Amino acid sequence: MRLKMLLIAGLALWSSVALAAPKKDECIAEHVPHAKEVGHGRMTFLGLNLYDAVLYAPGGEYDEEKPFALTLIYLRDFKGNRIADETSSEMKRLGLREDDKSHMWNVLMKNIFPDVAAGDEVTGIYTPEGPTIFCESGRRIGVIKDKDFGEHFFGIWLDDNAKSAALRQQLLGEDHEENNNAGARHVP
Predict the structure, then answer these.
(1) Containing domain of residue 139, as a range?
(2) Minimal CA–CA distance to 110: which of 86, 92, 127, 94?
(3) Which residues are 35's β-sheet partners?
(4) CB within 10 Å: which end of the chain, N or C, has fewer?
(5) Has this prediction a pTM greater than 0.85?
(6) Biggest alpha carbon distance in the chain?
(7) Which residue(s) pair with 186 in the sheet?
(8) How many domains does the chain fold into?
(9) Could you tell me if residue 182 is inside a domain?
(10) Residue 140 in contact with residue 134, Cβ under 8 Å?
(11) Domain harbouring 52, CATH code
């Protein structure tokens, strides 16, 4: 009898946890129609695993003119401010001018990007209309309404000059081998 009660309690707990857990894909599904994975890879630095990245696009076909989503699953703890500063540095490395706009974007990112722990997921969603939407574990956490921001931000991973060419290829589904970016320096 006691085993039966434990089994029922376990099933009840499992079903309530499954129902209460946020659905990661809701945020993506709302903005990327028929979203499917394009590719995935891992960012490392000096042998340390930093995060896994997954690119989603309509039907699993990436097109920079259509909405897409990039989810980072962090494998280490990072402060949101550090993520914002590293993101700004990488955007500048790819050609963003140091001006009031880049400073404003950094401030906006610092207000949006959460501190993350291993296992936390943050998704950026590109919309061709302009706004870049950020979600954490399926919950919307912020929006930057400047189309130029989205182009610069997602360029960190998808630009031809992205710091990790191997990760870029994996995200775009061009490289199916295991990722090894030991020389990459990138936190976001």
Answers:
(1) 22-171
(2) 86
(3) 58
(4) N
(5) no
(6) 70
(7) none
(8) 1
(9) no
(10) yes
(11) 3.50.70.10
